[in-house]
Amino acid sequence: MQIILQRAGVPETSKQLFARLMQEDLIPVEALSSVVESYRRVIADAARKNGRANSPLGNKIADALQVLLGRVSERTGEENMRILQAAVRYFVIQNDGVGHDLDSAEGLFDDARIINAVLWFYGRDELQVPVPEPVANRAPPPKKR
Prior knowledge:
Blueprint: H1 2-5, H2 12-21, H3 29-50, H4 55-70, H5 78-92, H6 109-121
Helix pairs in contact: 2-5, 3-4, 3-5, 4-5, 4-6, 5-6
């Protein structure tokens, strides 16, 4: 798990929560899949209501998690299940310490970074979720003449 948390791009504020989530009791993979789909709907509803939640990014994260969950079998070890479950749990916690997921277009950026670190760990780079540059880090647009 440490290798995931040391991955470039994983926010410092996310590491402690992810490590704590790794300690939770395991729940069935079918339940994890349902939780992901439920949160996908929560994000979409919030986007319709407040216009700030990033539904396209939420869908990409949910899609990647569903692919990983679909690959779970009886041979999946406990440590791998803990990592996957922690990734799902991190995704569905709205106020995960890096801002509220549903209050801004950037609310899911930390979730995407965590998921990307997990995808990298599992060798599934083709599922990486593009994370836009936060507005605060973007260069201002060029001035028009």
